[in-house]
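Mods, move this if it's the wrong board.
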Amino acid sequence: MQLRFKPFELQLKHTFTLATSSRTTTPVMLVELEHDGLIGYGEASMPPYLGESHETVARFLKKVDLSGFNDPFRMDEILEYVDQLETGNRAAKACIDIALHDLVGKILGQPWYKIWGLKPENTPYTTYTIGIDTREVVIEKTKEAAEFKMLKVKMGRDNDKELIETIRSVTDVPLCVDVNQGWKDKHEALDMIHWMDEKGIVFVEQPMPKEQPEDMAWLTAHSPLPTIADEAFQRIHDIPKFKGVYSGINIKLMKSTGMREAKKMIDVARALDMKVMIGCMTETSCAISAASQLSPLCDWADLDGALLITNDVFEGMKVIDGKVTLFDLPGIGVVKR
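Not the wrong board. Structure tokens:
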């Protein structure tokens, strides 16, 4: 198997503002894994908070030697080898995992949702993200998202109620909110959640800092809405310790090291009676389509990352009437433009 990679910069349609930062671009690494004339595509997306960059991912990928693996179907063995090369580098590992899944699916001539025996009609609606911005821009973004049946609102600054009221002046679709650790006091957080419960909010993602698990457990116990772990949660070994701390988890391929571990995460979360969301970073349709193969197993999806950029180099999963829609393209379901 031959591994090739090149850096790429995603251009965002709007400035993307969270509780702690803003950006207009996201670095990614595009990967190709070739075997017997077939090419599997992969991607590493590197928003700043992950601590990865073009340089760190390139350094990691240069260490990867797949010359000893002549059979792509030895997926567990290959990905265990990749995982043990370094302790971190989750996005770098994910791009190889995605490319390998794409390659093996193409050899089999089937998409992964079929290989896993999943029903495409069971995919959830995906949210569309509204970032923190001025009232005028928030209204514009909300109108642009008219086809979506659920919106995700970034929060965590001093204008949270104003954001919700602004969106509610335009639409009455269900909302979920992502606070990105922006609330520090559990009592104030609970007051806000009760207020949001009356505004048609479905769940609250990462309301408090990941360093405050006791406060989060108290908040989850008293909250009328489900609480979802994001920044606090990275890999599969994190899940059991969050039982009772959060109502559910947000799985992202760039955190889980790819599709292989993400599917195992879903199984563990379900065994612990936890909710599951499949999410994303700002990504091309490559990584988005890979994550969408798992979406029939999930309660919610936040797979709008490719819709937030202007320079997607792939075509893959489509959002039709707000719903994640899977096709019969083999592998992860993408073609290169």
